[in-house]
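Action item from last week, closing it out:
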Amino acid sequence: MAHLTNLKNANKTLFFNKFQGAGNDFIMVDNRNNEHDHHNPAFIARLCDRRFGIGGDGIMFLENKAGYDFEMVYYNSDGQPSSMCGNGGRCIVAFARKLAIIKEETNFLAVDGPHYAKISEETDWVSLQMIDVDHISQDNHAYILNTGSPHYVLPSKALKTLDVFSEGRAIRNSALYADKGINVNFVEDMGDHYFVRTYERGVEDETYACGTGVTAVAMAMAKEKNQKGLVKTDLKVMGGDLNVRFHYDGQEFTDVFLEGPATFVYEGNISY
């Protein structure tokens, strides 16, 4: 059992689950009884630390919310409240099923509003409805849009060898984006799919996958190629495969779904 010291609420035990979605890993906590006060950035950051805590790209607290199956309260690994996390949203759906809160379908609340999701009865495949998007702007060759979180999408070459950490960090901390931050996605067209690598704000590093990021990539590429109607996009990230589907009329993206695996890793207790 690990021990966290010099934190508030000493001598408590936190029971947690770990889930990952295409390599994007998250700590999951059932907080329906409001036992754990998570308004403590240092505490959250310590839990997410891969050397001194449990380790994860972020942490989610599943809480009760009237009118919904549950509420998703999400923090990045830096301990700060975050905007929407697509892979995290898929993982918390799998967690809710593990807790027997839901079976195959759910309606839950996240920071960017209500979400519908469906999880396969026999597998860990989760289809999560994302917000509609009606605006994409450009910054030179990059596309800028918000899919629940703000994203910068840059078509790239030789992405496998690109220094995503350095390049992504430079863009995220540039004068235009430093204040609020932005997630930076590099995308290479591989013909039958897109290869995507992402530098995430809040994590301040490259992650193995980013759900809102691949959603932004699929939309940006549909706009660039003028693909209209029902569009389904296959994407490969460092942690596996994802797909995004939506309807695009040339102006607005609607009926947006992010799909991929949400896999249970392990569960445990940590005292603090």
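Closing note: Residues 211-224 form the longest helix (14 residues).
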